[in-house]
Amino acid sequence: MESPRYIYVVDMTFAGASRVTMADVARVAGVSVMTVSYCYNQPGRVATRTRNAVAQAAQSLGYLGPDPAARSLRNGRTGSVGVVLGEHLVYAFDDPQARQFLTGVAAVCRHRGVGMTLIPTTTDERDGARVRAAAVDGFIIWTTVDSDPIIPAALSLDKPVVVHGGPDVQGTHLVAIDDRAAARAISAAVFDGAKRPAVVSFPLNAARESGLTPPDLAEITFPVTRNRLLGVHDYCAATGIDSTKLVVAVTSRNERATSRDIIDTLLDLPDPPDAVMAMSDELAFEVAAALKKRDLSIPYDVSISGWDDSPGAEAAGLTTVRQSLFEQGQQCARLALSDDNMWQQPAWQVVLRQTTRTKLDLQPAP
Amino acid sequence: MESPRYIYVVDMTFAGASRVTMADVARVAGVSVMTVSYCYNQPGRVATRTRNAVAQAAQSLGYLGPDPAARSLRNGRTGSVGVVLGEHLVYAFDDPQARQFLTGVAAVCRHRGVGMTLIPTTTDERDGARVRAAAVDGFIIWTTVDSDPIIPAALSLDKPVVVHGGPDVQGTHLVAIDDRAAARAISAAVFDGAKRPAVVSFPLNAARESGLTPPDLAEITFPVTRNRLLGVHDYCAATGIDSTKLVVAVTSRNERATSRDIIDTLLDLPDPPDAVMAMSDELAFEVAAALKKRDLSIPYDVSISGWDDSPGAEAAGLTTVRQSLFEQGQQCARLALSDDNMWQQPAWQVVLRQTTRTKLDLQPAP
DNA sequence: CTGTTAGCGCCTTCAC
DNA sequence: GTGAAGGCGCTAACAG
Asked: What pTM was estimated for this model as a whole?
């Protein structure tokens, strides 16, 4: 003997509602199906009396409006933007950058009354299918590797595809600051006068191996990481630093606990750095904590810089690259909803505070 | 003159793909439409040769798999769970509790390969329509007020509805700890020996007015807030404390910065509290900071307790109610996907640390 | 293992 | 201001 899975409110307004269709409402109201459809989609077109009759019929039957699946089959819109966070999904809510970005996306979605669908991926070959099977009107892809197959998969659907961070693929919109220029500028702030510059870097590629790597640009497939390292090299080239001597500590994740080991390794080198450019404020905070533990002063023994100017950077006096992930999230959402043709590259700015020694003015050229 | 909105990869595999249907593939492969459908949905059922022929036809036409809208119109499933965070949506990613919860939901979704659709609401009368218009297989509703209309709206669709926190509505699944019992237990820990107990509370209702309110239970429509205050009253009743003398500082949001003013007001009362039960660890941290600013010692001048045992509580030595929002998120997701009939109420536990003076054993009865 | 039939619930198109 | 026809792309149910 089976018992019902759910117990419904007895009110007939709601019972079994999902099986009621426009046709039922039309029959009860004594009008055609089209009239019911108009009542929901172009109410101005329907006579007030008719509209009331339809409303009453709908109410008495517990009809609750057009079915979303049928509607989107018919008109091709789903009312949701897809957001692909990659393997990242499960810890996206812990990453301050991803959070600010998602908040920006959410703000636009809420304003427009559209949903945001987080699409899970797992780095296996079924990801393309999952992306294509998502009922969304456009895609936002959180920073990924150069030839991530989900990008062509998303592109194949004839819907807007917006990539945040990178890579820059033909047919997509790229929303990202000029990481290379910003890296060059922040290098000037943090490496000014340094003898032994070092970088604490995001992962190089999907393998996410941590290590003290000499920067082999060829194996870097995360565009953000690559562009920032290129910017550092630009600075080295311009100032006569031998960039092959640059130490790059690569973390496997943008998270303090995860990066602790490699940062310790970096600071305990026989010839430890006297200036550290970190690719995020989080990582910079961890470097600062590690320096404090070693009784090294910032910026006199070691100057450090972060990236993002996240909440907390100001209080910590951290020199950093300011950018608004929130605004970038908003921009991505607008582009994914085809609601913004006025593309402009997001702004960035070097914010000089107390963790670096330089007094130079390091803003980007206008 | 119009220029094309997107530039597509020239590869014909992808161009204009979205207009290719199963019928086209069937024609080219020389089979029926059903066979193509089987190839995608029950490949084991199709002969290898046929399957290859279909795959080749699909490839040559640039067919990329079944259209999600058509598929869900037909079979009634969408492959996504809806999550309603209320007005909360835009700052949900800042709230540590909501984040842990969402991470739990995301973990299950990723495992099952289903998406999670965040449904925006704005507290206007169109919310019901927005909820119903979401193409999802089930709803998860983040803690809300007693008679939030989105609950009947979601219920009317004949899909599983899971409410986290509260309210407990017939026909929905409720996932929440026994807040009342837990509040009584944590009260025993934090108020033990106190002369002037106080509570720093979540909002009472959707108005979210901050204030130093005498606890009028009738106006409280957030079940979580109500249950926790009831638990405090239970404790008062059992120990002979006059609960009308209990001071309740109500915050408008579970966030440190927002709650600062009311906490200052509370601590600067002519007769300030000597024990504070806060409804979250965040709020407790803010209380601790405010006490420190006043050079009051914890727990000797003032004992305090938090709620959730979030990361950070242990390091701070905070006495708190431990619960796993992550597991609760997982449970909600499973229920929303009709994948879990083994419902059991989530566990909680009082964790005694250094911010309270009591040494009693305060675990829940088995 | 493959095909036929019959819609899913709605909205575009075109008539009146 | 309203209605009739037709089909969006797919799959459940049932043959064979």
From this structure: 0.90
